[in-house]
């Protein structure tokens, strides 16, 4: 029964994540969701910026702290190891949904593309970014990344093994294609409002800082293999890989 409950919790967390991911697309693109980025009650610019920065900071703090190895070592003394990733994913998803719900719009345009061709092109580029995010997760084991593999192995009474580091497809051209996809998705828009600019700028800054922290964790896990990978493959801008020394 304990193993079944662990698996069901992991499956629930994954379901919440996937719903949140789809909602984020609608929130950023302004499509098919009850409240998108430019919807809602308009307040003063200063107050809206404060609210939105607090919301973004809550996600950034949770994501940064809970992803660190030191925190995981402490946290897994309280939470079962198979559930650690699922709890992380669930909390991150709930904080994103909170941000979507409480986001204060800043509807004044920085740029606005009127022509249908230009709008279509920018939406297409943005959706390429979202697709890149999802595709890249499957290249490194999507279900391990979002905690489902861990709870499934626990349910099947099989020992968890760390996913092997592999240079496949996108990862042989750029070390962080998931983050590249997010940056593309956030900036390619025909309607860049002040609110969208705050969102895109803050998330991009967090991504660039977060990558530095994540790389230290990856070095701790994968050692010299990852150090050599860093030397050969670009961090965020896709480039042909350098020859191995």
H-E string:
HHHHEHHHHEHH
Work out the strand percent: under 5%
Total helices: the number is: 10
Average pLDDT, all residues? 93
Computed over alpha carbons, the radius of gyration is 19 Å
Order of strands across the main sheet: 1-2
Could you describe the largest sheet, including whether it forms a barrel? 2 strands, antiparallel
Q: Identify low-pLDDT runs.
A: none
Helix content: 55-70%
Count of distinct strands: 2
Structural class: mainly alpha
Distance between the termini: 52 Å
* Count of folded domains: 1
Q: What is the molecular shape?
A: globular
What does this structure look like?
There is one protein chain. This protein has one domain (2-232). The chain is 67% helix and 3% strand. The protein has helices at 2-29, 45-66, 69-75, 81-102, 116-139, 142-145, 148-155, 177-187, 194-222, 224-232, and strands at 109-112, 191-193. Strands 1-2 form a two-stranded antiparallel ribbon. Helix 2 packs antiparallel against helix 4 (81-102) and helix 5 (116-139) packs antiparallel against helix 8 (177-187). The longest helix has 29 residues, at 194-222. The model has no long low-confidence stretch (mean pLDDT 93).
């Amino acid at each position: 029964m304990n193993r079944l409950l662990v698996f069901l919790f992991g499956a629930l967390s994954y379901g919440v994540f996937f719903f949140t991911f789809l909602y984020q697309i609608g929130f950023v693109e302004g499509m098919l969701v009850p409240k998108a980025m430019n919807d809602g009650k308009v307040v003063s610019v200063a107050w809206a910026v404060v609210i939105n920065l607090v919301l973004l900071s809550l996600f950034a703090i949770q994501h940064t702290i809970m992803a660190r190895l030191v925190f995981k070592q402490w946290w897994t003394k309280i939470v079962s190891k198979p559930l650690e990733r699922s709890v992380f994913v669930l909390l991150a998803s709930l904080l994103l949904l909170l941000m979507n719900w409480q986001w204060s719009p800043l509807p004044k345009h920085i740029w606005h593309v009127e022509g249908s061709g230009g709008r279509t092109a920018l939406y297409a580029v943005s959706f390429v970014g979202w697709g890149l995010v999802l595709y890249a997760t499957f290249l490194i084991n999507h279900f391990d990344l979002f905690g489902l593999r861990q709870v499934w192995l626990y349910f099947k009474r099989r020992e968890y093994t760390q996913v092997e580091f592999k240079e496949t497809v996108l990862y042989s051209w750029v070390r962080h294609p998931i983050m590249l996809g997010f940056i593309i998705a956030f900036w390619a828009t025909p309607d860049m409002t002040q609110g969208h600019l705050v969102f895109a700028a803050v998330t991009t800054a967090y991504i660039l800082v977060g990558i530095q922290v994540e790389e230290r964790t990856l070095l701790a896990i994968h050692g010299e293999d990852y150090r050599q990978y860093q030397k050969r493959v670009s961090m965020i801008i896709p480039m042909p890989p350098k020859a191995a020394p």
